[in-house]
Predict the 3D structure of the following.
Amino acid sequence: MDILSLRVEKGKGAVISRMNAEIVAIGSELLLGQIIDTNSAYIAQQLAENGIEVIHTTTVGDDLGRIESVIRSAIDRSQIVITTGGIGPTEDDLTREALSNVTQHPLVFQPHLMEQIETLIRKRGFRITENNRKQAFIPEGSIPIENPKGTAPGFIVEGPNWVTLTIPGVPSEMQYLMKTTVIPFLRKRFHIENQIIRYKVLRACGLGESAIGLQIGDLMRESKNPTVGTLASIGDIKIRITAKAENPGEATSLIEKMEQEIRKRLGILIYGVGDETLQGNIARELEGRGFTLSVAEPFTGGIISQRLSGTGTFSFLQGIALPSDSSQMQFLNLSGADLNNNRSNPAKFTEVLARKIRNVSGTTLGLAVSGRVIEEQEREELRVETFCSIASASDVENLAHTLGGELQMVRERASLIALDMLRKYLLKKRKS
């Protein structure tokens, strides 16, 4: 690490106000789908949190010519290129050779790296093989990235206006080296070591990503510091506010001002912050009011119950999946003819289920979700009418939605709609 510190203190080039980075994930197993590339996502997140913009990610197989071509293109476009994978001991680990050829730095054996590799291998009870010597070769003049977690040391090659950082593909090793070496190096190399970067994530539901975008699109387009971005999954939108400043107080102030504006526009759509979940929010509201809940799921098949059970709350007492006619007949104590008659009015049927599960379980609230297919479309997609009911001792609230997509996706969306309905119901009760 002394060499690293010395080289960084010297620095090269002027301060770059906007840094572009690329990530190159190397390994044929990634292209074959044998391993999912989680490394690129992790590296991109770490870079973004330090104000470095990723403009490309590339996956390339274990072919020397193709790896060289990808790295050359990356260096032409970006100041920072991070490669992950391909520095193991086998014949198909070609990243160090590719970097050597592209940067015109011949590979040189590093005895101190070999010593570290041998120590780690013996400590783990394995035998040294000739192949392991390969891992102690790095491009001449490069900065070694020592790897106490594995036998594949990385290295840093600096050019006139670019830098490449090569790290292992094993996720645990990659993550360790990103935190301990790569990010600290980049922060010093590009003179951002004194810059504070803070971010906050607001979580919203009740509108799709495009509708959320209409509400805050100008903030996403026009705001430079802090910046605003969204990340969507089914029924859940994450709104990320990122600020850069010279001290933590200034960064926090920038975030708070933007958060106030976003909350003003989205209001009740925002349900949480950071890692909070919709079901966790509901569990907290139930416990705070001393309410208990039971759920009947003839359409969603237990998805809601599973989410609520995962919170560990004592307020969720019972959940029952009712996927078949016979289970619904037994639960409601109805004949087949009576069941069909009830289901002819699906909104009323859902209300009956909510009241029944509440009475059977003895809970403060009963929640039920049902659905019926109204159209079968191509590619196994459906249009489904879904119905949600919340029953209390004094009233019942109902909600209907028409959803489209594959059946499992529709069930997931219906579950989130029901949970969001329950969240808003509890908020309303808090104010009453």
Observations:
- The two ends are 62 Å apart (CA to CA).
- The chain has three domains: 2-189, 196-273, 278-431.
